[in-house]
Amino acid sequence: MIARVRRRTARTPYAAGVVLAGGSGARMGAGMNKVYLPLAGRRLVSWSLAAFGRVPEIGVLVLVARPDDSKLVDWVLDRELTDTPVEVVYGGDTRQESELSALRRLASRVDDGTVDVVLLHDAARPLVSPALIAGVLHAAREHGGAIPGLPADDVITVTDDVVSGPPLDAVIKAQTPQGFRAAPLIDAYEQAAREEFVGTDTASCMERYSGVPVRWVHGDQHNFKITYPHDLTIAEQFLAASEYRT
Amino acid sequence: MSEHAVLLCQHCGEEADHRLAYAGRLLVTSECQNCGHTIERDVRSRYLADLKQRVATKPIRMWKRFARHPLGFARSLPGTTVRKPSELLDEVRLVWCYGRRASNTHDRDS
Predict the structure, then answer these.
(1) Cβ of B5 and A27 within 8 Å?
(2) Which residues of B fall below an 8 Å CB-CB distance to A?
(3) A94 neighbors A9 (Cβ within 8 angstroms)
(4) What pLDDT was estimated at residue A29?
(5) Nearest-5° angle of CA A21, CA A22, CA A28?
(6) Taking the alpha carbons of A244, A246, B2, B8 in that order, is the dihedral positive or negative?
(7) What is the per-residue pLDDT across B7-39, written as a single tens digit (0 to 9) for each?
(8) pTM for this entry
(9) Which ipTM was obtained for this model?
(10) What is the pLDDT of residue B31?
(11) Structural domains in chain A?
């Protein structure tokens, strides 16, 4: 379904933002997909879509959702994202299949050169800021790939419950959005699909099937993933303190 | 308003269904349906400020909805008008009930 498509006058390439709201089918249970939970007056997913919508270089915004969530998606787009054009793709059972569905939606625009970079973002990280999105986008455009992360200098290795090594250097806790030049990204995902490779995240698939260097961009403490119920209260307080802007 | 979603429980460590109850824009309580662990918040003062803002912005929000879907808006208006007072009363009850309990047992979120 295409809700609305942003018109652009210039023919300069633009970036595509892909927000993944598929969740994991095995974790759904009887309740709703957590990315549609209310958070400070709007649904989780609409916070990140709105943040992408405020980045001028993002020319197209794709939401990847589960078919079961179609009514919620329509409701969110109609009530909470009236000024943000969003294309909706109904994705697969895994994160990687969902990403591939979105990339196939964008493929023709990548081929004709209108989309040069794709940023993939997890909808369970509602506090992503336009500044971080723009930072990842610029680094991906310049270097080929970029992922945001926070230094994890307190990580140590453990073997059989025994500390087996000193704190690891140069380890980061990866966040999203992860950005890559569009053409190699699509090639990597198509090859991964042919070989039935399932990576842990976008970067792992790129590492395996593409020679594109991936740069680390300093992430944001607030860009955490909603995992525990308490995360919702922290996110709510952050949004209230920032006058409901990410 | 109450919702259910699977979240990771910080008490039992399981990914379990949680019941979450909201008053306006504020999460008031969450309860793990696996172990019963509950988070209760005292949001009484914040609720009043939030309610004030919601009331102040209601006309513009209603107008925007009307502009987008005049027919649907007109059809839903009588039902909404009837339901709204009891919804508001339920919100107030929820906020004050959990607010008192949370303040008696050390608010875990303030």
Answers:
(1) no
(2) 1, 3-10, 15-18, 20, 22, 24-27, 30, 32, 39, 41, 46, 64-65, 68, 109
(3) no
(4) 57
(5) 115
(6) negative
(7) 999 999 999 999 999 999 999 999 999 999 999
(8) 0.88
(9) 0.86
(10) 95
(11) 14-241 (3.90.550.10)
